[in-house]
Amino acid sequence: MEDLHVNALKAIGECLTTPPSDMRALCTFLEESHILLFIIAQSPSPDIYDGLKSIMQSIISTDLLEHFDEDIRVDVVACLSEIIRITAPNLPYGDETMMFIFKLIVETFRGLNLISTRSYRKRVLILETMAKVKSCNVILDLDSQLIIRMFSCFFNTIRHQNEENVFSPMEMIMIDAIEASHDISDELIRCLLSSVKKDGRREVNPIAYVLGKRVIEKTHTKLRPYLIAFFESSGRFQFNYSKIVTKICQNTKLPPWLTIVKEFGSKLSIADDPEEEDGVDAAASHEPPTGIFSRDESEHGLELNQNETMVHPIESRMRFRPSVFDNLEKMKGVTVAGVNINIKPSE
């Protein structure tokens, strides 16, 4: 089994060294690469890692990273996100290449509102993978400005139509980035506050408001001194934003309706302050959209899996995203580069 997997990795890597000009053939090779990478556990055996090197080198060619077709670029980034997962906590490439890759990853997030497109589910999978490997810690070391661009991208693209597997990874990435930051810039504070600004106009994005408010709630201890300094230096008024901002800055005791959680994976109370009137639609601002959480979850809290780890068997991963690879979980094997590989959960 492992020998077949190694041979398939090397064969695909050789095929991608000189990418075919035919779009359909290139899509096929990239899809096969993604499947192969998807089923590899973190910290693979030396033989698997040796076979992996072939794809690792060929996938970062200029022809692929800067391909004119957006769907092809998303396929390439999907492969790269799996390589980052497999090699974590080590980085698969040097700083300059990683910086370029992370910029491509953030660019793919801009399409998370394009739910009907071919590449949408790949974009979601990239988002989930990046949340699990805590890639924001690396981005902070390479380019803190990219974190701000990513936050802004999340607020601009999140929609009611997105499911929980988009909302939660966004929230997780933003919380991790804030908690891992040694210093929080005014620009990042402005980005966060823009999502929870009171506005009587209807163009306010209610789900972005919920996302921003929950991130601020869960990182209130880290954000408090920066929020206070921001308002003191900028002359802005706290009451122009969600009441949680005023509560944090005044260090008042948080009310019982609010459950603050430090880590993704705890019970979460998601009811909003019933007395808060923020100029956005009341139903939208006081409870997450039904596309994100069910009524039962909204009333009783969302039970999340505390045992979710960065290394996840294919059965566990497919449970949350059954349509990423159609019927993959039902297949006994898959043929990649002319080699049949049995599909089974990684140990």
From TrEMBL:
<keyword id="KW-0498">Mitosis</keyword>
<keyword id="KW-0132">Cell division</keyword>
<dbReference type="GO" id="GO:0035825">
    <property type="term" value="P:homologous recombination"/>
</dbReference>
<keyword id="KW-0131">Cell cycle</keyword>
<keyword id="KW-0227">DNA damage</keyword>
<keyword id="KW-0539">Nucleus</keyword>
<dbReference type="InterPro" id="IPR016024">
    <property type="entry name" value="ARM-type_fold"/>
</dbReference>
<dbReference type="InterPro" id="IPR039776">
    <property type="entry name" value="Pds5"/>
</dbReference>
<dbReference type="GO" id="GO:0005634">
    <property type="term" value="C:nucleus"/>
</dbReference>
<dbReference type="GO" id="GO:0140670">
    <property type="term" value="F:cohesin unloader activity"/>
</dbReference>
<dbReference type="GO" id="GO:0007064">
    <property type="term" value="P:mitotic sister chromatid cohesion"/>
</dbReference>
<protein>
    <submittedName>
        <fullName>Uncharacterized protein</fullName>
    </submittedName>
</protein>
<feature type="region of interest" description="Disordered">
    <location>
        <begin position="275"/>
        <end position="298"/>
    </location>
</feature>
<keyword id="KW-0234">DNA repair</keyword>
<dbReference type="GO" id="GO:0051301">
    <property type="term" value="P:cell division"/>
</dbReference>
<dbReference type="Pfam" id="PF20168">
    <property type="entry name" value="PDS5"/>
</dbReference>
<dbReference type="GO" id="GO:0000785">
    <property type="term" value="C:chromatin"/>
</dbReference>
<dbReference type="GO" id="GO:0006281">
    <property type="term" value="P:DNA repair"/>
</dbReference>
